[in-house]
Specification:
- The protein has 455 residues and is mainly alpha-helical.
- Among the domains are: 139 residues, Arc Repressor Mutant, subunit A (Orthogonal Bundle), CATH 1.10.10; 42 residues; 112 residues, no CATH class.
- 47% of the residues lie in helices and 7% in strands.
- The chain has 18 helices and 8 strands.
- The strands form 4 sheets. A two-stranded antiparallel sheet has the order 1-2. A two-stranded antiparallel sheet has the order 3-4.
- α5 crosses α6.
- The longest helix has 32 residues.
- The N and C termini lie far apart (147 Å).
Length: 455
């Protein structure tokens, strides 16, 4: 046995150093990742979707197992002997997790030690780590089952409302304060010079370091009250102060929250009028000209009301829930003679509008040269849309190119030149000029208000 161990041991000159082994490992890992990416590229659409579901289940199982082990580690306090002073620091330093991931897993591990049933909810995907972190402070032995059932498949905003219903916070007083001035940061130190080679050098420039960018803060205090915090410019601050001064009779304390509510009411009224054609006194619908891409106001109102201000795309797994970046979509494309009617217009988010357009016209290729903007490259079984020109546009172009008859008085004052088109005078001016030319000199002068010159 010792002889076998001696033969199996490698010579120092033959063995690779640890640095070479590490390089080989990284190269092998990189090739494996590239192979995974290439294998994913070879999957069909259905196979790719099925594979993603399998990987999501694996990730949830791995997360549940990690949280369970972290909960046991928190109970044994073994991580303290490794150096980190908290479970959060251990996740950051030893496990290499991000700040958000470490914070969520630390909070979930603490909650799991009290209520192990959370692991089952995490495994089946009914709740997330963020949900557990938010519900952790309000969970009790009496309500934890009911709260976990209520928070099933809820978004973060909905879970925050559940928490604030159980733990309401007092209203935050309105405050306006000026942010601190950015601290100046000196440039790099100047190189040392000797007495023999003295060169005048300008001082290092002082750079003002911008303050850290803070995201707007919106959080519920109670289910009916919210806290909103954001940063504005000096111009916006001056507008707010001006509004406070002008509204002192209606809003005596100058509460920015009340002014903000009034401003949002007016803004929403203006935006809804532009986007949705919202009005309290709708006009009688007018016919749309042939070839116009404009969608009538009554159609926009009916479509927004029917689709409830939400993307109306319905996929294999249900309807889209997006309410932002909404656009009016032609079910039968405009390029295929689709009319602007209530039945043919529907709301789509930006992503689904592009998705359906690419399904008909193909994916947009920026390298392709397009001769005309009003013709589409459609499939072979559908005739492309011919060039369209509205009657109003044709009338304007015809008037611009038609040569008008010059006025006699203008011809005498300014001789006509080749290629110069003289505009036709208005009918009222032409009648007045003809009348003045037919009248005697004295009568014409008195009619025009100019004194006659005696000879």
């Amino acid at each position: 046995m010792p002889q076998r161990l001696e033969n199996s041991s490698c010579d120092s000159s033959r063995c690779s150093p640890p640095s070479v082994i590490t390089v080989h490992f990284h190269v092998l890992k990189t090739r494996m990742n590239e192979n995974i990416l290439a294998a994913a590229a070879r999957l069909s659409d259905d196979a790719l979707l099925d594979r993603l579901k399998v990987l999501a289940v694996r990730e949830r199982d791995a997360t549940v197992e990690l949280v369970a082990h972290l909960a046991e580690l928190h109970g044994r306090r073994t991580h303290l002997g490794e150096g980190p002073g908290s479970l959060y620091e251990y996740c950051r330093r030893e496990l290499g997790l991000s700040e958000d991931a470490a914070y969520n897993r630390d909070a979930a591990a603490r909650a799991v030690r009290r209520y192990p049933v959370i692991l089952d909810r995490l495994a089946n995907g009914s709740i997330t780590l963020t949900t557990v972190r938010l519900l952790g402070p309000v969970l009790t032995p009496e309500n934890h089952l009911a709260l976990l059932a209520e928070a099933k498949h809820r978004s973060r905003r909905e879970v925050e409302l559940i928490v604030r219903r159980l733990d309401p916070q007092p209203d935050v007083p309105s405050s306006i304060r000026k942010l601190p001035v950015p601290a100046p940061v000196a440039g790099p130190p100047l190189p040392s010079v000797t007495q023999q080679n003295l060169v005048p050098v300008s001082p290092a420039p002082t750079v003002l370091q911008p303050p850290p960018v803070q995201r707007p803060f919106i959080a519920p205090l109670t289910p009916e009250r919210y806290r909103v915090q954001f940063t504005v410019s000096k111009e916006t601050h001056d507008k707010l102060r001006r509004a406070q001064d002008l509204l002192r009779r209606e809003i005596r304390d100058g509460d920015p929250g009340a002014i903000f509510d009034r401003a949002l009411t007016l803004l929403l009224r203006d935006v809804e009028k532009k986007k949705m054609a919202a009005t309290s006194r709708p006009r009688r619908p007018r016919e749309t000209k042939d070839g116009s891409r404009a969608i009538p106001a009554h159609v926009r109102r009916a479509v927004w009301r029917r689709d409830d201000g939400r993307c109306a795309f319905v996929g294999t797994r249900g309807r889209c829930t997006e309410r932002a970046f909404l656009e009016l979509h032609h079910v039968t494309p405009f390029g295929h003679q689709g009319p602007a009617t209530v039945e043919n217009i529907s709301l789509r988010c930006r992503a689904h509008n592009v998705y359906e357009a690419e399904a008909v016209f193909g994916r947009y290729d920026p390298s392709a040269v397009r001769e005309r903007a009003d013709k589409y490259s459609v499939s072979g079984e559908i005739t492309p849309v011919p060039e369209r020109r509205s009657e109003a546009t044709y009338t304007i172009r015809r008037r611009r190119t038609k040569t008008m008859t010059a006025h006699p008085t203008i011809d005498k004052a300014m001789p006509a030149k080749a290629g110069v088109t003289i505009p036709k005078p208005r009918p009222r001016v032409a009648r007045w000029t003809a009348t003045m030319a037919a009248m005697p000199a004295a009568t014409a002068a008195s009619a025009s208000g100019c004194p006659t010159r005696r000879t």
